[in-house]
Design brief:
Tetracycline Repressor, domain 2
């Protein structure tokens, strides 16, 4: 007998935040251990101690669509938290070097504190997903950081031989590679503790 589908997802205003948080926390753990196409909603339902019908009601009434929506929700939640922390830490910092250094530290610290989120991104978040479905918090963060980089280029501090978005990609590319490989290699210790020397290396690469 097949699984009975709900007529449609429950509106967000009628969803229980505690249930949604439990499902998404469980999903992060499952996505962190397996690639997206190997994960089943049954695994997530067991980990969250809920029924498949509950997942369909919260994330859509279609198995593949629900899994996609659930992964997106986990990603948006995690990156939304990161964006909020970064915006808080950037407030009141004036110099370009100090701003970029703080961004670098916040991301390293985030993955040190949330290794399962990092593993989920490695296993299940493919390149095409990074540029889609961005939240307002992520958009605000990207716009803020791009403005900082652009101003640094205009002031003659940062390399202006490439477009600002490429400079942003270079910065984040180095940062995410360091964070992800630290997780994959299972290295002991916190990357944030090496923030100073790591950022110095990157700073020399992007300044004139």
């Amino acid at each position: 007998m097949g699984v009975q589908r709900h007529a449609g997802p429950v509106p967000a205003t009628r969803q229980d935040p505690a249930v949604r948080e439990r499902i998404e926390w469980a999903a992060v753990q499952v996505f962190a251990d397996s690639e997206f196409h190997h994960v089943t909603l049954q695994q997530i339902a067991r980990a969250a101690s809920c029924s498949l019908q509950t997942i369909y009601r919260y994330y859509g009434d279609d198995s593949q669509g629900s899994k996609e929506a659930l992964l997106s929700a986990c990603l948006h939640h995690g990156l939304g938290q990161l964006a909020e922390r970064m915006l808080d830490h950037l407030a009141g910092i004036d110099t370009f070097r100090d701003r970029l250094s703080k961004v670098f530290w916040v991301v390293l610290d985030f993955f040190d504190r949330n290794p399962q989120m990092g593993r989920m991104m490695i296993n299940s978040v493919y390149p095409g997903r990074w540029g889609s479905d961005s939240t307002p918090g992520q958009q605000r963060l990207t716009e803020l950081f791009l403005s900082v980089l652009h101003e640094g280029q205009d002031q003659g501090i940062l390399n202006d031989q490439v477009a600002t978005p490429i400079l942003l990609d270079f910065f984040y590319g180095v940062l995410l590679r360091i964070s992800q490989m630290h997780l994959l290699r299972g290295r002991p210790g916190r990357l944030a503790d090496q923030h100073g020397v790591l950022f110095d290396m990157l700073w020399r690469a992007i300044t004139i």
